């Protein structure tokens, strides 16, 4: 059964996550405010960031960097800046 939430990222009602994908308070906020569509956009950015910055998910500092980028992207409306990547023009 799908649930509808108001997505902070998309600024409209959209299909919510089926379960909490991220731990802790931030995970609850994502579950309640971030749609599947917005999360999949973040997943694509996250992959590019990990590759670009050569982040190691076993490294706490690297995870913090990624988490901050995630918060900026999902909640602050900030585009992820990836060196050497130019988004396709709309």
Automatic annotation (TrEMBL):
Gene Ontology BP term (one): cellular response to oxidative stress
GO CC annotations, alphabetized: cytosol
MF-aspect GO terms: iron ion binding
One Pfam family in the UniProt entry: Iron_traffic
Keywords in alphabetical order: Iron
Annotated signal sequence range: none
Oligomeric form and interacting partners: Monomer.
Described purpose of this protein according to its UniProt entry: Could be a mediator in iron transactions between iron acquisition and iron-requiring processes, such as synthesis and/or repair of Fe-S clusters in biosynthetic enzymes. Necessary to maintain high levels of aconitase under oxidative stress.
NCBIfam families: PRK05408.1
Homology family: Belongs to the Fe(2+)-trafficking protein family.
Protein name per UniProt: Probable Fe(2+)-trafficking protein
């Amino acid at each position: 059964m799908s649930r509808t939430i108001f997505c902070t990222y998309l600024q409209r009602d959209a299909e919510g996550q089926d379960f909490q994908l991220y731990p802790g308070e931030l995970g609850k906020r994502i579950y309640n405010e971030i749609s599947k569509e917005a999360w999949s956009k973040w997943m694509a950015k996250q992959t590019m960031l990990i590759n670009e910055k050569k982040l190691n998910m076993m490294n706490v500092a690297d995870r913090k960097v990624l988490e901050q980028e995630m918060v900026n992207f999902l909640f602050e409306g900030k585009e992820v800046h990836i060196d050497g990547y130019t988004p396709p023009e709309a």
